[in-house]
Structures are given as structure tokens and as C-alpha cells.
Amino acid sequence: QVQLAESGGGLVQAGGSLRLSCAASGRTSFSSSVMGWLRQAPGKEREFVAAISTSGRSTIYADFVKGRFTISRDNAAITVYLQMDSLKSEDTAVYYCAARRGPTLIASNYNYWGQGTQVTVSS
């Protein structure tokens, strides 16, 4: 079982930046897992944001964050990151770290979830 813990959320002005971190419980499980970030805004369904391959060499992004957000991972540190730049008020949401076993890089079918971290962007 993979345990995930997000951190780095907070309040930021529009146009600003935040970096979210997600610490996982085990190196072996983490390095063999595709990692992703999803978010849920008030009154909306949870939506996919970004994902990264097991090696960190490939990434996928939702259209609404392309060019602004960057997902990365450090397998030695057992951590995945989401660098968020040029933040907009509509980025306000609870952001969740998620993991899925295996090398397939997709936007769905994640097996493990963190508790989430709140990101609030003010205008």
C-alpha cells in the first residue's frame, strides 16, 4: 500500500506561483508507479491535472494547465512535485496527489490518493 502526503498549498495572488510536493511511503512502490495530480474545485467534479511516467521522462497535462504547470519527480527522494506558475483564480481547488502501478501513462485509474492540499488564488 502506498501512502501519499501532499504539502505546499496556500493562498497566492493571481499570476503568482506555488510548488506542491507529495511524499510517498516507499521507494520501490513509488519508482514503479505513475504519479499524477488531480484537483477538485468547489461545486465541481475532481479533474485530472498532470501525470508523470515512472522514470520522469514523459508527462501529460490537462489543456487548462499546459504551459503553466510542470510535474516532476525525484525517485530517490520518493517525492513528486507540481510547480504551478501564472496561477489563475480558476485554479483554486483542493489538489490531490495520486499513484497508479505500472508504466502506462494515462489520466485515469489511479489506485492511491493523498488527503489533498488547498490552493487558493486571489484576484
Contiguous low-pLDDT stretches (5 residues minimum) are none
Distance between the amino and carboxyl termini: 40 Å
Quaternary structure classification: single chain
The biggest beta sheet is recorded as: 7 strands, mixed
- The gyration radius over C-alpha positions equals 13 Å
- Percentage beta strand: over 45%
- What general outline do the C-alpha atoms trace? globular
The number of helical segments is 1
Q: Got a strand count?
A: 11
> SSE string, helix = H, strand = E?
EEEHEEEEEEEE
Helical proportion, percent range: under 10%
Structural class: mainly beta
The average pLDDT is 94
In words, what does this structure look like?
The structure is a single chain. This protein is mainly beta and 123 residues long. The protein is 4% helix and 50% strand. The chain has 1 helix and 11 strands; from the N terminus they run E-E-E-H-E-E-E-E-E-E-E-E. The protein has one helix at residues 27-31, and strands at residues 4-7, 10-13, 18-24, 33-40, 47-52, 59-61, 69-74, 79-84, 93-101, 112-113, 117-122. The strands form 2 sheets. Strands 2, 4, 5, 6, 9, 10 and 11 form a 7-stranded mixed beta sheet that branches. A hairpin with a 4-residue loop joins strand 7 and strand 8 (79-84). The radius of gyration is 13 Å and the shape is globular.
